[in-house]
Amino acid sequence: MKTVVFGAGSIGVYIGASLLAAGADVSLIGRARLRERIARQGLLLTDLHGGRIRLEGAQVPYGEEPGELGNADLILVTVKSADTEAAAEAIHRHAKPGAPVLSLQNGVGNVDQLRKRLGDRAVLAGMVPFNVVQMADNRFHRGTEGELMVESSPLIEHWQPAFEAARLPLLPRADFAAVQWGKLLLNLNNPVNALSDLPLKEELSRRAYRRCLALLIGEALAALRAAGIRPAQVARVAPRLLPPLLRLPDGLFRRVAGAMLRIDPQARSSMWEDLQAGRRTEIDYLNGAVVSLAESVGLEAAANRRMVALVKAAQHGARNAWDGEALYQALSRPAKAGEEGSLPEAWEK
User: By C-alpha distance, which of 71, 80, 74 is closest to 9?
Assistant: First the structure.
């Protein structure tokens, strides 16, 4: 039974290569630059617990053509959210009818988009709680904890042994929409980390940046309450406790919430990686999703709207690191009538 990883960037390569190293039949589909790098340098997978797996380039079937989807018995979708529509079209055109699709993407709307195009094909939601950073020597490093979660379905039971052998067990959840929103709350730190230009552990150790995250999460929780959505707890802390916890002074935060800082010192957010590489980010599908939800229930998520503007400015060259206090002031300043979230000239770094 063959697994094909479609959109094999940092997460896709880490999951696909882990399955491959555990003996699964896996092919990866992604971009030419990564295919060439893997063929030349091979792959090194590492994690925060000291795990280390080396694969030579010849051991990793990595291509660019979606035709490989025709060989898949299971398709893992790991493309960025902006590419979901194109991925759905490629699967529709190339994949055999019986192959289920498991979305391991950020955000809350990707599975609906896939289902809309793929009709009766089985499409399941999944959630990846950990981050993976590409490092020197073609090393893909998992810097945070957590287990893969998937929408409960008998279809996934057949694949569980392969994922367990790869030390990536699939935890079934019936409340998957709540899981996705719970994960999105945590992903609101992605732009904070990206604009800080710091490793995650260092960024979260500083109260000024945590206050930014608390502000973003607070707006999201208000919108979720108004919409009647209760986000699931997908980390060590219940969603409603996150804002007050994040606002604690540094010393108290370390004592009360030290588990949140059990992060590999090398870990960074995928959005930081995207900005460094000059790639389009997922800001519209994270903070932008909060803005859209708030609007749908008659609320304003001003800080999240401004964060979208800041990251888009960074995508166009305003990429100097933000000091935590300056970032908080930019996000929390009083709203002006008619403001649409554009970036004032004074904010440019």
Answer: 80
